[in-house]
Specification:
The protein is α+β, with helices and mostly antiparallel strands and 340 residues long. The chain has eight helices and 17 strands.
């Protein structure tokens, strides 16, 4: 959100000065076709936005390509020692920042799905551009950080097999930037027993890093089964996770590895993607096509500047975005936070 002020011309009788606050909501949205490819060329009039249930004006729309051109290389003579990382929030890095979060389980319907998806996850990593960065975390009985953000995709690919993912491992902050390990709370990670708690830790660690980030959950479910009208209970830890991810400007994309057409805990993965502006994708029948679809979704997004219907916003508010075009899906993050 941005605030702008404008001076008022003085009257002849008596000088007068005042300020007019104009609030802006800056938010990201993806508009995709059924195969995951983005819908390009949209403008202000194509988006219908509500803030807290009330219509809002779309002031500007920009398309942001997330896969940027490669960085220029330098010779060894131009190289400089790495400076200590500043404590203030960093400038947005070039390229995409993606966290691969593997949710492991040794039940046959789940571990089989992990084995089937690992080669396609490797293909996804190897298709990225040199300026992109990937981090890897694993949620088993607790959360472990296996790899900090890196563009060593060849070395990382060797560690993305099902056997390596299941192997206990953790990494520490080594001074590189951008870094997930830098703000990764090891104590809370060791105490995380649910996917929601793991995502809260990751969201908090991503918050100091400027720009748009993505978490790809390669998993089997969120929440726990219960009797009643809603069979899946997500709980308060889920709400904390969604808020942490929203503050970090991060969307979650769920790759469901369960070997079944339908299962109970998929509802939690779907809800997680819906609430964070991501996408839920089943990998049961066509894991390769599922990963290809995800790769297309991650090519870019629209950035909207929205004038809210009220001068003042609550610290936390709901935002809804629609596009009246046939055959398209809008991926929005419904929960937003006002800047202090």
């Amino acid at each position: 959100m941005l605030a702008a002020s404008a001076g008022v011309a003085p009257c002849q009788e008596e000088p007068f000065r005042g300020e007019v606050e104009v609030w802006r909501i800056i938010t990201q949205v993806r508009v995709i076709r059924s195969d995951g490819s983005p819908v390009l060329g949209l403008g202000r009039d194509d988006f219908l936005v509500t803030v807290g249930g009330r219509p809002a004006e779309v002031e500007a729309v920009d398309w942001v390509t997330e896969a940027t051109p490669p960085l220029e290389t330098t010779t060894s003579e131009d190289a400089r020692p790495t400076e200590p990382a500043p404590k203030a929030p960093m400038q947005p890095p070039r390229g995409r920042l993606v966290v691969l979060l593997f949710q492991t389980d040794l039940r046959p319907s789940r571990v089989t799905g992990l084995v089937r998806i690992d080669e396609h996850a490797i293909e996804l990593v190897q298709s990225l551009a040199p300026e992109d960065r990937i981090a890897v975390a694993v949620m088993s009985s607790h959360l472990d950080l296996h790899a900090d953000f890196t563009n060593d995709f060849e070395g990382l690919s060797e560690r993305l097999t099902a056997l390596e993912v299941l192997r206990p491992e953790s990494v520490a902050y080594d001074g590189r930037q951008p870094s997930l390990a830098r703000s990764f709370d090891e104590r809370k990670a060791r105490r995380a027993t649910t996917l929601s708690e793991a995502l809260e830790v990751i969201g908090n660690a991503l918050e100091p890093i400027a720009g748009t980030k993505s978490v790809v959950v390669v998993g089997w479910g969120a929440g726990r089964f219960q009797s009643g009208p809603r069979p899946v209970y997500l709980g308060p830890d889920y709400d904390r996770a969604v808020r942490a991810l929203a503050r970090a400007n991060t969307s979650v994309f769920s790759l469901d590895i369960t070997q079944a057409d339908r299962h109970t805990l998929e509802e939690g993965l779907q809800q997680l993607a819906d609430d964070t502006g991501g996408l839920y994708i089943r990998t049961y029948l066509f894991p390769g096509l599922s990963v290809d679809k995800l790769a297309r979704v991650l090519t870019g997004h629209y950035e909207l500047s929205v004038i809210p219907p009220e001068k003042k916003l609550k610290k936390e508010f709901k935002l809804r975005i629609r596009v009246d075009l046939p055959g398209v899906e809008v991926l929005e993050r419904g929960l937003e936070f006002r800047d202090p």
